[in-house]
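FAQ: What does the model actually see?

It sees only this:
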Amino acid sequence: MPMKSVHRMVHQADRSDGTVEWACPQCGRYTMCHPSRQRIVVVTGEANSVHVPGAGFPPDPDDIPSLSDFDQRWLYNHQMVW
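And it is asked to produce this:
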């Protein structure tokens, strides 16, 4: 089974009602995401592609906690590169 192509959506605008607008530069898909988690697809674009939010969503954390030495060794010993 072939893997679906992944398109990164680009943030377009924040509306006064809290709705966020996103667009796909690769296929033209255009969506509006309401705070109630309702997603409205205005333009379908490539329906068979997977669309993911681009940079800035969610916002990058200011303080990223580091892993302890114990946690890093545990991940390494279990072949989980972090």
